Amino acid sequence: MKKKLISILAVISFFGIINFTYAVSPEPIFFYDSGIGLTWSTNITNTAGTITVDDSFIKLVGDTTGDLTEDLNIDSNTFVVDFDGNNVGIGTATPTTMFAVNGDQSCKKTNVADANYGTSAITTDYVVAWTSLSAAKTATISTEDEDSGTATLPRVMIFKDQTGSAASYNITISLESYGNIDGALTYVLNRPYQFVVLEIDGTNAYAIGGN
Hints:
This protein is mainly beta. The chain folds into three domains: 2-53, no CATH class; 72-101, no CATH class; 109-210, Jelly Rolls, CATH 2.60.120. Helix content is 2%, strand content 38%. The protein contains one helix and 18 strands. It has one helix at 143-147, and strands spanning 2-4, 8-11, 18-22, 30-32, 44-47, 50-53, 72-74, 79-82, 87-90, 99-101, 109-113, 127-132, 137-141, 155-161, 171-175, 186-189, 195-200, 205-210. It has a five-stranded mixed β-sheet with strand order 11-12-14-17-18. The longest helix has 5 residues, at 143-147.
């Protein structure tokens, strides 16, 4: 069954109820029932401009519960959920750890050109690197970034002098909340090409790698 709706702004929950708010647009979208058994009056309703769809979930063919009962393999090992081991794999059909990747990886790098680093907001930064330095600089890790880590699932960030000029122009790292980094209020990059890997637990930070 296909139901023609109108272009949507959606907040989606795979398990449970899905609520949609829509606006008039010339671009139509469609719901497609591939055997779940959705009906317009029962499972899909329009109340004051909000489209609600229930009983819609990620499912295996023949599964009407919404719960996986066997391994899930999407696009020939691109994404795998190991039902018995409770593991997730990328590029492997047999993940042996909670998250296993068989293939190349990339991560976000933020280049800072001769400027201070820091914003009072959550970021997705992982590697922060200075690509030019003409004076001493500061790096302030926001309270929001601090709070994104915990003692058992810390946030990890890497800071790097990519210019080789940190001996002349130090880079001083601190936490916006005035927490400690290895027991001190600041951590200073003061050697050429120095870097530090910090784990941030929501209160303090600790160097777990560097040169």
